[in-house]
Every structure is written in structure tokens, then in C-alpha cells.
Amino acid sequence: MTSLLTHSNPISYFPNSSPTLSKSPFFTHTKTLKPFKHKSLTVNSILQYNRKPELAGDTPRVVVITSGKGGVGKTTTTANIGLSLARLGFSVVAIDADVGLRNLDLLLGLESRVNYTVVEVLNGDCRLDQALVRDKRFSNFELLCISKPRSKLPIGFGGKALVWLVDALKDREEGCPDFILIDCPAGIDAGFITAITPANEAVLVTTPDITALRDADRVIGLLECDGIRDIKMMVNRVRTDMIKGEDMMSVLDVQEMLGLALLGVIPEDSEVIRSTNRGFPLVLNKPPTLAGLAFEQAAWRLVEQDSMKAVMVEEEPKKRGFFSFFGG
Amino acid sequence: MASILTLRLCPSTSYPRLISPNVIQLRRAELGFDWCQLNCTSENRRAKKFVICALSEGDSDNHDKVLKSVKDKVFVNTRNAVVKFQESVSSVPHIFVTKRISTSYIAVGICIATMFLVIVMRVFTARNSRPSRPGSVADLVRRGQLRSDRRGISSTLKYEDPFNNPMVKISKTNSTVEMCGKVYRLAPVTLTREQQNVHIKRRSRAYQWKRPTIFLKEGDAVPPDVDPDTIRWIPANHPFATTVSDIDEDLAQTNVYQKHGVPFRIKAEHEALQRKLETLQNDQKFSKLTIDPGTARNFERPFKTQLKLDDQVEEKLSNGPSRHTQSDHTRNSLGSNTNTEDIQHT
């Protein structure tokens, strides 16, 4: 139940009031397909990529990944989107703003390398560059934890500390990062307020159940009150079989309830748990998994400030050819 | 006669479960005597042999009598065994069982052989397709000896487009998509900009919120010119947040912006330690001026002259106590001399 693309004009989300499939083919991305003719991208292709999404918006793009309800997959989304972006060649700094219950380092397999956090930076125990943990798999991906599990964050400065961090990251010698992803804690407590302060866009992660949707609606309301207008939604842990049996809300139902543009739809996948246990994000799996592909597609859309134009609603029996009996 | 029959029937008795009652009846008709007696010839023969052996040493008169009685006993015993055998034979359903079992044996044999072949093939293919041969660069990466992103000779990372790769295929009519081998039906997203605006308006009415800009501990006084809605009250026992900070805001900001050099606190601690050391050294100088020469003597290193002096002292002590005071005096004077030397050096 993963997402599909997309529209030709990323600025106007809905060029037609009733977008039709014929008018917006799913895998034709005019913005990204155009540069195929250019020589520069041909060189890029030889170097590393077949093609690369075009970065929209000003850098650094500070994106907060939030949900309201806990356990819906914020940290998993941050890890997978972050590494997908890094894999696409963008420089990414992921900030684990979950003060009391940080887990992003575990998902990325970097837990043994976190020596300093933002608390130490604020106190002057280390510099910011010492607190940033560079991933060995993709050197353009860095992790910054806000505090150690047992320490208390002095939030007397409010969200200013994160604003300073973003400013400091902008002025780095290595250059300004393309993306700063902030993994927001659950709830709407002090941690949430701190996490959303520097953000100028948000990704709301939710699951298709009413408890998560109620919290999500509240959080969207708070984000909008705070002035964050660019909010997109990721529906996680979707099961097409349950949707078919009408035991689960469909993605379109969720969208109707929240009224947000869709960044991605992630199917329920046992590989998610496996990758979490391994500290090896799903998007790096070879061969790619269904959820991993969905995360990669979502990252692609995030880069281009794009949204989904069609969703996969149910599984159909695969049509088999004449020689399928013989393995064809 | 009995021995011949025994010889004939022995092969058949070796497969008692495979013989049907029909066959037994047939045999009985053919041979024209009681099957039960003949069937147990082996036991009879054994009994006979035993009796013959037992009587070979005894009288010949008694031989016939004893033989007769033994025969009777053996007959009774064998009769029970025969009944049991007949029961077991009659429990077997049909003669074609033999054929069935033989075919199943063949099938099992074929299965085992195929399984063995499959295992061999799999092992062979796995051995051939194994990417990292022992000692290769891939093997080094796998063992953690080499970092994968620094491998110069590895193939470059070629990114696969998530919307167009072998795992994602779209149908020509754009109505279905195949992902990871599963085909899904597609439905268009119907949310419009107008609908989105309606939701935004609804939420703006439902949730009135101002982001807190000031965090205060419960019990603190509200500062003047501050909107009470923007205050977040943090309980004293909050699990991870505290309003207490030992550094002021400007200093924290400078710490975050610091790019080079020693971090503030490390530097401050270093300077504080250095100052402490200096003051300690100054204190030592001062105290050493007034140090008691007697206590200072304890810290002296023993050297040859002093050892000699000690020997002299011991000798003098053995001679008499009158000279003791003199030696003490010399030692004290020496001690005081060394002390003054130390102070000069410092």
C-alpha cells in the first residue's frame, strides 16, 4: 500500500480540482525527467546516480517529524528518510529532539558513538562539531542527540537552543546542510515545543486508527498556530488486506479526516522490526523491501516538495503468464 | 515327511504378516494335513532334539514313554503359539499389501534421492555465488577490517530510482502498480486545495494556542510584560526538563556558535586548575619558609654521607650517651642545610 507519485508542478499541489490518472501519470516526473537531456546530469549518472531529484526550497530545510501519539513511527521515519536523502546525495543532519527517550541513535546503529550531546554543547563541555556523529555508511549524514537519557535538558532558554543550533549549522565550514530533520518526541509537552521551534515545515506521521488521528489533528492545529504551514502527512503501518476487509481506514479516509497532502504511505512490514533490531535502516536493505521503497519514494517527494497523486488501495491477484507454471 | 514340509514351509513362515488366510487354506488343501502341526515344526524339532539329548544317557525302556509325554506337552505349547500366529495372520488385510509397500519404498527412495540432489545443487550454487571469497576485499568489509565507503575498488553506488526500478512497475493503463512482486490497484487522491483550507479553518477555530516562550518552574513569579499564555510551567520533578541552568543564555549561545579552540568549560576548568596549582605552589613556598626541620627530615632522600653519619651515630651510641647530643646537632644542622637548599632551588 505504498504511495505513488506525483504531479508536474510542485508549487501548485492540485492543479486540477479532480486530478485524473490519465492527466498525471504516476511515474512521469517532468521535473526530474527533463534534465535527462542535459549533459551535466548525464555526467552525474556516470558518477553515481541514474538521476537525482531536484531540491526545492531554501537550504537548510528544517523539517520536524512529529505525530502527537507515540509509537506510530516517527523515529523510524526520521532514520529512513534521513538516510534516503543522504543516499540521494544531500547533506543531512538528524537531530534527536526526543529528550527523555531518545532512540534514533539505536535505529541508525550509532549508539556506541554518541559521546556528546546538545546539553554538553550548551554547557561548553564540547563544540558542536564534536557532538555531531558522522555516519560511516554515508558521510553526508550526521546525527545530533539533544541529551543523554538520564540527564535533564535545561529548557530555560526555550526552543532558542535549537534555533542557535540551526544557525550554527548554517555557518559551518563544511557548508550549510541541505536538510535538518528533527525527530520530535511524542506528546505536546516541553519537548514538542522545543522541537518545533526552529522548523519551517513538518511531516506528520500517523497510523490509520482513530487514536492516532485524533492526536494528529490536535498536533496539526498546534503546528498551524505556530505558523508552520507546510505540513505533509505520512500514513504508516497500512495493511491492504485489512482495508479490503473494511477493518482499517483507508489512506483516502485518513486524508479526508485530516485534510493534509500525502507525502507517503508505508505498508506494514515485518522487515521494519528486523531493521530496527539490527540498527540498519530499512532503505539500505538489499533487495529493497516494500516499506523501504515507500520510504525512498517519500524522501524523493520531500526533496521536491511534492505530494502523492494516487495511492495503492488493495492488492490484486497477480496475472500469470502462460509459462508461469514453468517459472516464467 | 514332517522335515520335508518344514523345509518347504520355512520361507513362508519367515513372512508371517504377509500371508493371507486364503493362502493358508490353499496350502492346507494342497498338502492334505493340519497346518497347525506343521507350522510349528521348528519348535517340535527343537523339543525333540532336547529330549533325545536328555535321554541319550538314560534307559531305552523309558525312552518311548518320556518322548510321548514330552510330545504331548510340546503340542499343547505349540498350539497356543499357532493360535497367536493365526490371529496375527488374519489381522493382515490383503495380499496386495506387499506390492503397495514396495511401490511406497520406491517413492520414498526417489524422494530421498531428489532431496539429496537438491541439497547438493544448492550447496554448489551457494558456493559459486558467494560474493565474498575468503580473503577478498568484500570479505574484509564483512569482517569489519575495511570500511565499505572507503573501498576504492568496489563498484560505485548506483542509485535505483524508487519510482522506476525492477521492483516497481506501473501498468500501461496507470490503474495498477506492481511492487515487490505484488500487484496493487491504484486510486487517485481526491483532496483539493479548497478542502484543505476548510480543514485549516476548522482547526484554527478548534485549537487556540500560542507557543510558550518562557519556561518557569512552578512557584516562580511571572515576570512583567509577559503574556501568561506563553508561559510553560515545568514541575520540579519533571523527568527530563529543568528550568535550572548553571550558565546564562549568552554564554550558552556563544558555546553553540564556537567553531574552533577549546570548549568553554574545558578551558575554564583548566584555568581554574592552573590557578589552584599556582596558589598551592605559593602556599608551599610560604609554608616551607617556616617548615620544621625535624619534619622535613622525613622527606629527605638517604644519601651516602648521611648513611655514614648514621653509622657514626650508632658507634657513638655504643660508646656512650655523652656524645649523642653532638651527633644530633650535626644531623639537625645537615637537615636544616638541605632544607634551605631545597627552598633555594624552588
From TrEMBL, chain A:
SUPFAM superfamilies to which the protein is assigned, alphabetical: P-loop containing nucleoside triphosphate hydrolases (SSF52540)
GO biological process terms held by the UniProt record: negative regulation of cell division
Residues covered by the CobQ/CobB/MinD/ParA nucleotide binding domain: 63-279
GO molecular function, one term: ATP binding
Sorted UniProt keywords: ATP-binding, Nucleotide-binding
One GO CC term on file: cytosol
Stored PANTHER family: SEPTUM SITE-DETERMINING PROTEIN MIND HOMOLOG, CHLOROPLASTIC, SEPTUM SITE-DETERMINING PROTEIN MIND HOMOLOG, CHLOROPLASTIC-RELATED
Entry's family note: Belongs to the ParA family. MinD subfamily.
Protein name: CbiA domain-containing protein
Organism classification: Eukaryota, Viridiplantae, Streptophyta, Embryophyta, Tracheophyta
UniProtKB/TrEMBL annotation, chain B:
Highest taxon of the lineage: Eukaryota
Keyword tags: Membrane, Transmembrane, Transmembrane helix
One BP term from GO: chloroplast fission
Region span, Disordered: 292-346
Name of the molecule in the record: Multiple chloroplast division site 1
Stretches with biased composition (Basic and acidic residues): 298-317
Biased composition (Polar residues): 332-346
PANTHER family to which the protein is assigned, alphabetical: PROTEIN MULTIPLE CHLOROPLAST DIVISION SITE 1
Membrane spanning stretches: 105-124
Organism placement in taxonomy: Eukaryota, Viridiplantae, Streptophyta, Embryophyta, Tracheophyta
Record's GO cellular component terms: chloroplast inner membrane
